[in-house]
Amino acid sequence: MTKRYAWVVLLEADIQGANLSGANLAGANLLQANLSRANLYQSNLSQANLQGTNLSQCLA
């Protein structure tokens, strides 16, 4: 299944442990989001705003 999340705004979102494998997050605003332990394998994060985002222990 193809996951598409273009133009996503996830301000201060808590999505720890989420499976975002193969997701298209290009240009997404992930400002201060909690992505701890998320699966980001083969995700597209080009030009995403990751300022202050928690990416600890992510699978990439």
Automatic annotation (TrEMBL):
Q: Name one Pfam family in it.
A: Pentapeptide
SUPFAM superfamilies found in the cross-reference section: Pentapeptide repeat-like
Q: Known InterPro entries for this protein?
A: 5peptide_repeat (IPR001646), Pentapeptide-BTB/POZ_domain (IPR051082)
- Protein name from the UniProt record: Pentapeptide repeat-containing protein
